[in-house]
Specification:
It is built from three helices and ten strands, in the order H-E-E-E-H-H-E-E-E-E-E-E-E. The protein has a ten-stranded antiparallel sheet with strand order 3-2-1-10-9-8-7-6-5-4. It has 221 residues and is α+β, with helices and mostly antiparallel strands. Helix 1 packs antiparallel against helix 3.
Length: 221
């Protein structure tokens, strides 16, 4: 008995489940390697296009597995005005400072992505696979990732499963307080990936947060 093939056989493309599993494995591997490193984190916060603060921290992973930050430098705060006008300005400044701190804190909710939240989104059927460039870029789109109504898009090199970047649509105090986030990833010589440049924009109050991570070197070197 002869069996004839009806046409060429193509390699089966990975399923969403397989892509999610590969993403989680890549994240875990990179995070484990990055715990051997220290680096400099530069955070610049701008309001209506004017830079209000710039801070640099030396970062490394502590014994508890969390990132420890040691201040390196920071821009000095401007002199405060006195009297009633000064009090009003101080109150507004305090409100904006709290808002900016929330914006900076929100970055941590998405960068790097959490394997647990990725799995929860998959289990809930809230993941879709999108091909951006065949063989070069695919994107996993997660709905309701960290908050109801938010979205996380993770771009991956399909041949290596390494992170290339991510995009986020989220909010701070409520859905009307929209926030967008874009992160580009780079690769160290040992193959681990890290968030090289992160930009968060909160259009409701014209706040922009830019985070740059650089100067990676192994602890003790």
């Amino acid at each position: 008995v002869l069996t004839l093939s009806a046409g060429p056989v193509f390699a089966q493309q990975p399923t969403v489940q397989e892509r999610v599993a590969a993403l989680k494995a890549s994240l875990a591997a990179s995070q484990a390697i990055l715990k051997q490193y220290e680096w400099v984190e530069t955070t610049a916060v701008s309001l209506k296009g004017e830079e209000k603060s710039r801070k640099q921290n030396r970062c490394y992973y502590g014994a508890d597995g969390g990132v420890q930050k040691v201040p390196v430098s920071a821009t000095p705060a401007p002199a405060e005005k006195r009297g009633l006008r000064g009090a009003v300005i101080a109150n507004k400044k305090e409100e904006l400072t709290d808002y900016m701190q929330q914006a900076v804190g929100l970055v941590k909710s998405y960068v790097p992505p959490s394997p647990a939240l990725i799995q929860a989104a998959y289990d809930g059927g809230r993941v879709a696979l999108e091909v951006l460039q065949p063989g070069k870029r695919v994107r996993l789109n997660f709905r309701d990732y960290a908050k109801p109504g938010d979205s996380l898009g993770v771009e991956i090199d399909p041949s290596t499963n390494l992170l290339l970047g991510l995009t986020v649509k989220s909010y701070l105090e409520g859905p009307a307080d929209a926030v967008t986030l874009d992160a580009r990833f780079a690769q160290l010589a040992d193959g681990s990936t890290y968030a090289d440049a992160i930009t968060l924009g909160a259009s409701a109050k014209s706040v922009k947060v830019a985070v740059d991570n650089s100067g990676y070197r192994k602890v003790g070197n």
